[in-house]
TrEMBL record:
<feature type="transmembrane region" description="Helical">
    <location>
        <begin position="147"/>
        <end position="165"/>
    </location>
</feature>
<comment type="similarity">
    <text>Belongs to the major facilitator superfamily. EmrB family.</text>
</comment>
<feature type="transmembrane region" description="Helical">
    <location>
        <begin position="54"/>
        <end position="77"/>
    </location>
</feature>
<feature type="transmembrane region" description="Helical">
    <location>
        <begin position="274"/>
        <end position="300"/>
    </location>
</feature>
<feature type="transmembrane region" description="Helical">
    <location>
        <begin position="406"/>
        <end position="427"/>
    </location>
</feature>
<dbReference type="Pfam" id="PF07690">
    <property type="entry name" value="MFS_1"/>
</dbReference>
<dbReference type="InterPro" id="IPR004638">
    <property type="entry name" value="EmrB-like"/>
</dbReference>
<dbReference type="GO" id="GO:0022857">
    <property type="term" value="F:transmembrane transporter activity"/>
</dbReference>
<keyword id="KW-0812">Transmembrane</keyword>
<dbReference type="InterPro" id="IPR020846">
    <property type="entry name" value="MFS_dom"/>
</dbReference>
<keyword id="KW-0472">Membrane</keyword>
<protein>
    <submittedName>
        <fullName>DHA2 family efflux MFS transporter permease subunit</fullName>
    </submittedName>
</protein>
<feature type="transmembrane region" description="Helical">
    <location>
        <begin position="373"/>
        <end position="394"/>
    </location>
</feature>
<dbReference type="InterPro" id="IPR011701">
    <property type="entry name" value="MFS"/>
</dbReference>
<feature type="transmembrane region" description="Helical">
    <location>
        <begin position="206"/>
        <end position="227"/>
    </location>
</feature>
<feature type="transmembrane region" description="Helical">
    <location>
        <begin position="447"/>
        <end position="466"/>
    </location>
</feature>
<feature type="domain" description="Major facilitator superfamily (MFS) profile">
    <location>
        <begin position="19"/>
        <end position="473"/>
    </location>
</feature>
């Protein structure tokens, strides 16, 4: 799967290569599962007798596993063919789905989700690496819009899809329905997929892998303990400090490997200003998206008393709007550049999350729908341009490292956002209940504060968006990437 030695297959202008279409379809199916359980959290709490703090780990553990596995995939994809990587990834995902469907306890369900995430983590870099090989540079903006459909829209549609399924059965149906669909997509891919590239022998620094998993996992797990009411805050602080220390060791290790060997993540990607800004904006965007997607089902079902189906239907328009706009945004970006899309998108994110701070027992549902749609449309206007802009700022030899770092931090940010909003909500409502406030008003107050924290964080995206260039030198268009070393202005 090395991109360095492969010639790009001939592709008819204006068409998306079949191999990319198949990988986008498979990636959409597996990433959909990242958020499909969010709408089922109230059901899980009742069925498995767990707290909100524990239930949110069905999503957080999925994201953190992806964050730990994605850095390894660059090494893995070099050692196997495209078909082998596809078969292994989808096979592992199928095994995790089956295990989750029959899970007798929360612990087994969590294990199933982790196995699912391992398969999902391979699909994202496989898609991106293949795309960079087979798609001509001048077509990447348009094709990236379709890739965004899988990477960004699938998580947005997860709660809507799960709402429909939960209407006819228990949370186990979420996995029972996905199982045959995944099997069909797997068989179709194995029949039609061609190998791109040749396997190569390569090495990996397992110390970096271990330290990265310890650092990012410890950071988010420690944060999740802050909202506990049983005196575990001290333990949470200790774990967070340990996680930060492990991340520092990871960074030092990568800097050393950049001089003496092959780093797991080449931090020289951060030396490209446009890529660094894009990385920050996408991370904050995913933090806001997943944080709000955790809070909305809790608000609509626990506070307002809606069913999972009603909740799913309420958030479906926003998810569909994001999906339909993905390819269009890619085409508009090719014509007008980033700022006319990203700056309004960033402002829209702040306005939508700010609006959610006004949730109440009587807020009209059309307002909830409108705010959610505004958030999804704003994210659609942001993700495709920023992803294309950031990757385009890198020279070809850093594509794999840039994609790996982007995918890793995207998942860490999403996990961080999930843990952050649940922690803020739980801590606030817990203090109010202790002071004698009723449970429902206390939880509502906690949700308002959590949305407020998310809105405050997204203010940073406006500043970042204003600093992004309209376009960047097309690194992919330069055979040796010389133009990518200097970010361009507007």
């Amino acid at each position: 799967m090395s991109t360095a030695t492969q010639e790009r297959p001939a592709v008819q202008k204006g068409r998306i290569p079949t191999v990319v279409r198949l990988l986008v379809l498979a990636t959409f199916v597996v990433i959909l599962n990242e958020t499909i359980l969010i709408n089922a959290i109230p059901r899980l709490m009742e069925s498995l007798r767990i707290t909100e703090q524990s239930a949110q780990w069905v999503s957080t553990a999925f994201m953190l596993t992806m964050a730990a596995v994605i850095p390894i995939t660059g090494w893995f994809l070099q050692r196997v063919t495209t078909r082998q990587a596809y078969a292994i990834a989808m096979g592992v995902f199928l095994a995790g789905t089956a295990l989750s469907a029959v899970a007798p306890s929360f612990e087994v369900l969590l294990l199933g989700r982790i196995v699912q995430a391992v398969g999902t983590a391979v699909m994202m870099p496989l898609l991106m690496t293949t795309l960079m090989i087979v798609v001509p540079e001048h077509d990447r903006g348009r094709v990236m819009g379709n890739v965004t459909l899988a990477i960004s829209v699938a998580p947005a549609l997860g709660p809507a899809v799960s709402g429909l399924i939960l209407q006819i059965g228990s949370w186990r149906m979420l996995f029972v329905v996905v199982l045959p669909i995944t099997a069909l997509v797997t068989l179709l891919g194995l029949r039609k997929l061609d190998n791109i590239g040749e396997p190569q022998v390569s090495s990996i620094d397992w110390l970096s892998v271990s330290v990265a998993a310890l650092g990012f996992g410890g950071l988010v797990y420690g944060l999740s303990l802050f909202g506990e009411t049983d005196g575990r805050v001290g333990l949470g602080i200790g774990i967070v400090i340990t996680g930060i220390a492990a991340i520092a060791v990871f960074v030092i290790r990568q800097l050393k490997l950049q001089r003496t060997g092959v780093p797991l993540m080449d931090l020289r990607t951060l030396g490209h200003r446009t890529y660094g800004l894009s990385l920050a904006l996408i991370s904050i965007g995913f933090l806001a998206m997943l944080g709000s997607m955790i809070l909305l089902p809790l608000y609509l079902q626990n506070i307002r008393g809606l069913s999972p189906l009603e909740t799913g239907l309420l958030v479906m328009p926003g998810g569909l709007a994001m999906g339909l706009l993905g390819p269009t945004v890619g085409k508009v970006f090719d014509r007008v550049g980033s700022r006319p899309l990203v700056l309004p998108g960033s402002i829209g994110m702040v306005l939508a999350l700010g609006g959610f701070t006004q949730v109440s027992m009587t807020m009209p549902y059309w307002q909830v729908l409108g705010l959610h749609a505004l958030l999804m449309v704003s994210l659609a206007a942001t993700f495709t341009p920023v992803f294309t802009l950031g990757m385009g700022a890198l020279p070809p030899h850093l594509y794999s490292h840039g994609s790996s770092m982007l995918g890793t931090l995207q998942q860490v940010a999403a996990a961080f956002g999930t843990a952050l909003v649940v922690t803020v909500m739980t801590a606030r409502s817990g203090h109010l209940v202790t002071d004698g406030v009723a449970a429902v008003p206390a939880q509502l107050s906690g949700m308002k504060l959590a949305f407020g924290v998310a809105a405050a964080l997204t203010l940073v995206t406006i500043v970042v968006a204003a600093k992004l260039p309209r376009r960047t030198a097309a690194a992919g268009a330069q055979e040796h990437g010389s133009a990518a070393d200097q970010p361009t202005g507007s």
